[in-house]
Amino acid sequence: MIKISADLFDPWHEVVVYQNSAKHWAGKFGATNVFVGTMRDFNDGDSVSAMVLEHYPGMTEKQLDDIVEQAIRDWHLLDALVVHRVGEIKPNEPIVLVAVWASHRGDAFDAGRQIMEALKNKAPFWKKERLQNGDERWVEHNTDGYLRSPKNDFSVFSD
User: Fold this and answer.
1) Mean pLDDT score, 94-100
2) In a domain, 148, yes or no
3) Residue 75 within any structural domain of the chain
4) pLDDT tens digits for 55-86?
5) Residue 64 · residue 123 · CB < 8 Å
6) DSSP letters spanning 11-47
7) Which runs of consecutive H residues, i.e. helices, occur in the chain?
8) Is residue 144 part of a domain?
9) Phi and psi dihedrals of 97, rounded to 5?
10) Residues 53 and 127 sit within 8 Å (Cβ to Cβ)
11) Which domain holds residue 9?
């Protein structure tokens, strides 16, 4: 399911409502992966007070549907939910929810990441930031999914 809305949403409520409505796969999932993206109050070294997120209706939903369908082809998923805000967004408000249900955690983790990264790179959304000083600017690129630092050393998980 793909949902685009200008209304503020509670991501946890969206997950519970969607999961409870999905009777055809009830009892079949062993893993739910949920990603919630929220608006930061900074970007590119500046304080940001708000952001306006625009999209192209019809095209955006189609692209998101294609992204989810690709993840379903690539991973063993039971279902997926994407909720994305448009309009004016303030810091700490949720922008995006990606939830996936699968029998096993590996598929859930990997599919959720795939959907989120494809959404950030392919979905037709345009962002205009309102800076603390009153200036406005269009965001020209999305940030990398990682803050590159020594903390990204996952060797602690290996034997």
Assistant:
1) 98
2) no
3) yes
4) 999 999 999 999 999 999 999 999 999 999 99
5) yes
6) HHHHHHHHHHH-GGGTTT-SEEEEEEEE--SEETTEE
7) 11-21, 59-74, 105-122
8) no
9) -125, 130
10) yes
11) 2-20+30-134
- Does residue 104 form part of some domain? yes
Residue 144 has pLDDT above 50, yes or no: yes
What's the sign of the alpha-carbon dihedral 42, 146, 103, 98?
A: positive
**Residues linked to residue 48 through DSSP beta bridges, in sequence order:** 131
What torsion, rounded to 10 degrees, do the Cα atoms 125, 37, 1, 75 define? Answer: 100
For 3, list phi and psi in degrees, rounded to 5.
-140, 125
Q: What is the pTM of this model?
A: 0.89
Both structure tokens of 132? 């603390």
Domain count, the chain: 1
Residue found by looking up tokens 């999932």 in the block: 29
- Round to whole Å and give the CA distance between 128 and 140: 9
> Which phi and psi angles does 126 have, rounded to 5°?
-125, 135
**What pLDDT shows up at residue 156?**
45
Q: What is the pLDDT of residues 32-63, one digit of tens each?
A: 999 999 999 999 889 999 999 999 999 999 99
- What's the one-letter identity of residue 1? M
The CATH number of residue 58's host domain is 3.90.1170.40
Residue 112 CA to residue 98 CA, distance in Å, equals 7
